[in-house]
Amino acid sequence: MGTVTSLFARWWNTVPALEEDEEEADATKRYRPLRKHPELFQARVPATWVAPELLEIVNACKSGNAKKPEICSALRVEVKDVYSFLCFSPEFVKLFVSEIENFYASGIPARRPNSMNNYGVIVNEIGMRPMITEFQQQYIWPIAKVLFPEEASQFDSHHSFIVRYTAAEDLGLDMHTDDSDVTFNVCLGYDFTGATLTFCGYMGAPDHRQATHVYSHEIGRAVLHLGSRRHGADDIENGTRMNLIIWSHNSAWRRAHPSRLRREYYSKEAGPPDPVCLSYTHDRDFLAYKEKPSGRASGRNRAWCPPPGKEYENFPDSDETM
Fold it and tell me: Which has the closest alpha carbon to 216: 240, 198, 237?
């Protein structure tokens, strides 16, 4: 149990590098003379880049009369506390994808966006942070503070990156939660089948590992949810999917809720997990319900969930088999 306890503590206290580490990254300096669309690197978001539906939602939120969850018809409630909306115009999608493809073609090395994605780009590190910050403050925040008034009372930083899934690279992403207070995730391309997004419960809740919804990506459409919601990217069947993800952070909310970093915050699980909500990387009982995924040997010794003392009744003692 001591090993599992230490793994849990290490997981809770592992925070990826944020903006202060991304300031004038080497990739930013090297890519500056190669930029294809300079307008993407400025602190402005022209109205032609956003979908009319997004403008409608933002205006409704700013009116002061918006009530959760029926802000306006343009906002779709996927499941409780998970929302989606048309976000970017075809003009922006074409421009942004072209720039990312240009960066890939440059051959400039880029850090992985997080510990679970092997292919992607931290867009802050190639110089796009001013534009992303403007978009966060002018479009994401007005919506998020109505939907999630505590976690989104302010946004003072973000970790923003591209993820890419293909049959030859990352097929999908294991079940996880985000190191964000609010997560924005928009599909930018291309043609693909599969690659849905499965949602489960909230970290630490009794139904943490119970399935709640399967979301199907559409190009230009964004999904918005709390970072503490367990979710995973289902395997792509064919084609390529590329998404822009913005992890918004609220330092004041984090300081006011230190209990989220403590083991006692995690409630005892109500019952066995739904198989689709299991994480090979994080869950101690994974092999009691599913076979070991091929090609995922690394990370198995990080299993910590559920924490000791928070197991459901008749929890299988499968630590030895993992």
Answer: 198
Q: Which amino acid is at 88?
A: F
Alpha helix ranges (H) inside the chain: 2-12, 19-22, 26-31, 52-62, 90-106, 129-135, 141-147, 251-256, 286-289
**3-state SS class at 5:** helix
pTM, whole model, 2 decimals? Answer: 0.90
Distance CA 205, CA 13 (A): 19
If DSSP codes are grouped into helix, strand and coil, which group holds residue 154? coil
pLDDT higher than threshold 90 for residue 21: no
Spatial strand order of the sheet with 229-233 comes to 173-176, 229-233, 197-202, 213-215
Residues 154-211 have pLDDT tens digits of 999 999 999 999 988 888 889 999 999 999 999 999 999 999 999 999 999 999 999 9
C-alpha closest to that of 117 among 172, 167, 159: 172
Given a contact cutoff of 8 angstroms between Cβ atoms, the answer to whether 92 and 49 are in contact is yes
Under a CB-based contact definition with an 8 Å cutoff, are residues 93 and 102 in contact?
Answer: no
Residues in contact with 67: Cβ distance below 8 Å, sequence separation at least 6, in sequence order? none
Is 321 strand, coil or helix? helix
Span 128-156, pLDDT tens digits: 999 999 999 999 999 999 999 999 999 99
Query: What one-letter code names the amino acid at 173?
Result: L
Strands 157-166 and 236-249: antiparallel
